[in-house]
Amino acid sequence: MTRIIGILSGKGGVGKTTLVSNLGVTLAQAGRKVGIIDANLSGANLGLHFGLISYPTSVHDVMRGNTALTDAMYKHPSGVDIVPASLSIEDLDVEPTNIRQQILEHMSDKDYVLIDCATGLDRETMKAMEMVDDVILVTHPELPTISDALRTKTIAKKYDKNILGIVLNRVNRSDELKKENISAFFDLPVIGVIPEDHFIRKSIEAKNPITLEYPKHKISHEIKSISHYLMGKEYRHQQSLVDKIKSFFRK
Ligand SMILES: Nc1ncnc2c1ncn2[C@@H]1O[C@H](COP(=O)(O)OP(=O)(O)OP(=O)(O)O)[C@@H](O)[C@H]1O
Ligand SMILES: [Mg+2]
User: Could you tell me if 10 and 148 are in contact, meaning their C-beta atoms sit under 8 angstroms apart?
Assistant: First the structure.
């Protein structure tokens, strides 16, 4: 059965789109059928992570009701099916719509459909929230960002969504808030701890998610570990000494 998972946050710019693109890739690499949808209608950029720059139809057309979801779907060589949002300012007037029914009908072959959500708690986010079964909350390990994410958790609970857990992104050695404390604060498991890695920028420039561009980086293993969590599997990986040394000097 298809699981529709929304990737949400409180604050913007915490790494939702980066997580969606890379989780999509790692789930596909593990043999799962994956679709990813850009529901960030006013801040679209999911397609760019895969080098999708111009496309005739987008999720905006689907929400307008004049295009079938399958006609706005683009296959990436990794196996991920991407439904990008329009980059055109002319499409900004589109009313956010709940397209859950279309997802269930046209993406029923998918094991996972990941929804890249907008930031904040406005209509765009709420409509996306209505579409999903499960929620993953992304935050940085710092109090203001955590407090905003907590507000999103409360809303997701009100919508009766199953919250899978927290992903901590851009974690570095000087962070004082520890995983256990953050987990206790949310009363949710921390299902991923993604390190700061400035090669993310290079991978975006290369139009290739970091798990494809730099598969040996610690960050790629951490994202694989989250995809294993979603599949109900344990991820065991021992970074080689050489890769550990390389990671150390990249910091
Ligand atoms: N682990 C990381 N290490 C370093 N940079 C990162 C990491 N994760 C994300 N970034 C950078 O942070 C920026 C924001 O990431 P991203 O676009 O994925 O966030 P977002 O939550 O989707 O933002 P928005 O709310 O605007 O949609 C990007 O420039 C990305 O390169
Ligand atoms: Mg985003």
Answer: yes
**Residue 198 is part of which domain span?**
3-250
90 CA to centre of ligand 1 in angstroms: 25
Q: Counting atoms of ligand 1 from 1, which one is nearest the CA of 18?
A: 18
Residue 65 CA, ligand 2 centroid: distance in Å:
24
Ligand closest to 12 (CA) is 1
Pocket of ligand 1 (CB under 6 A): 9, 12-18, 40, 43, 119, 169-170, 194, 196-198, 200-201, 204, 219
Amino acid (1-letter code) at residue 80: V
Tokens 């256990």 — which residue? Answer: 180
pTM comes to 0.95
- Say which CATH number the domain at 17 has: 3.40.50.300
- Sequential DSSP letters for 216-235: TSHHHHHHHHHHHHHHT---
Reported as a single tens digit per residue, the pLDDT across 64-109 is 999 999 999 999 999 999 999 999 999 999 999 999 999 999 999 9
The number of domains in the chain is 1
